[in-house]
Design a protein that fits this description.
single chain, Rossmann fold
Length: about 210
């Protein structure tokens, strides 16, 4: 089963990824936990380039292509082989991030971004995507608690950028059946319980041979 987590920076998805990993581990499931960008030796090197604040001169097109290159490596080296071997693959971000961040946020032509992602991921489409949604003022509140020197190249973005990204995620959640939109202002435990319930429903209605 392929599960992805999406949302604005500081939405709490990484916390939920870890809780889900612990939950599935307790059930003796085989798990591959990955993050984007990253997840392979090559992809982690690309991650360092993408998130380095010293690379402020990076063009939007470069950013999109680097994210996509990292993802292409991850899909072929890890995601597809592990799904074929019966693993639960849990990804902290996936291709929807590029649609939301580079398509909506950076305003790169959306049709091109979507087509590029289809090429990159091939058949590795998530079964469930959890979108943890928080308002922009909550993003800014949580970001204010982080030291400026600890923010990466994406996290230093202004509120207008995050507004466009959130709009993209909301649109995806309304058009993609695999999306589960969650109120990110709920407690950590409430969000986790919702996630567990949705995964249980999915497992009860999906044939075991279907990895997607």
């Amino acid at each position: 089963m392929f599960i992805t987590f999406e949302g604005l920076d500081f939405c709490g998805k990484s916390t939920q990824v870890k809780l889900l990993e612990d939950y599935l581990t307790a059930q003796n499931k085989k798990i591959l936990l990955i993050r984007e960008p990253g997840g392979t030796s090559i992809s982690e090197k690309v991650r360092n380039i993408l998130l380095d604040r010293n690379n402020a001169e990076m063009f939007l097109e470069t950013e999109l292509i680097l994210f996509s290159a990292s993802r292409a490596q991850l899909v072929r080296e890890k995601i597809i082989p592990y799904l074929k071997n019966g693993y639960f693959v849990i990804s902290d971000r996936f291709h929807d991030s590029s649609i939301a961040y580079q398509g909506f946020g950076r305003e790169i032509p959306l049709d091109f971004v979507i087509q590029l992602q289809k090429f990159v991921i091939e058949d590795a489409v998530p079964g469930i995507t959890f979108f943890i949604d928080i308002p922009i003022d909550e993003v800014l509140r949580r970001k204010s608690k982080v030291k400026a020197v600890d923010l990466d190249r994406i996290e230093v973005s202004e509120s207008g950028f995050y507004e466009r990204v959130r709009s993209g995620y909301i649109q995806l959640s309304e058009t993609e059946k695999r999306f589960r939109r969650i109120d990110g202002t709920l407690s950590i435990e409430e969000i986790h319980q919702f996630i567990v319930e949705e995964i249980t429903k999915y497992q009860n209605t999906t044939p075991e041979t279907d990895n997607a």
